[in-house]
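hi! just following up on the protien thing from before. the input was this:
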Amino acid sequence: MLVALATGGVTLTVIGWLAMGERLPRNGFFGVRTAETMRGEDIFRVANRVAGLPIAVGGAVATATGIGQFVIPDTAASIVVAAVGVAGMAVITVTGGVHGHRIAASMPDPGVGHGACACRTRAQGACCTRETPAS
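and the predicted 3d structure came back as:
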């Protein structure tokens, strides 16, 4: 478990670092992959840039927890530290993913011809922002 925690933490840290630097390509395995974030390359890139720091921090927490297991001599203390570290990693990482998803959900669909409209739907023939229907 110690090696898995440290290895998983390093992996998350690298994924977060790539996402922050906008170098994480849209894929089916890594990053924030919800229906909203997968709508387009730019949406995926922005959502993962936003989520990148919490993902990297969550990975650092997991890595530190895994490495810390080697220096804790007491089994009970080791279990408590591992549980707290895994919970902290999960909360931080999931929070980043939720934030990235929300950013993606607020972005317009790529290629939708709404002009200056900032929404993804039209209400009664008009854009949901300031456009008015043509008379």
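The chain has one domain: 2-127.
The longest helix spans residues 75-105.
cheers
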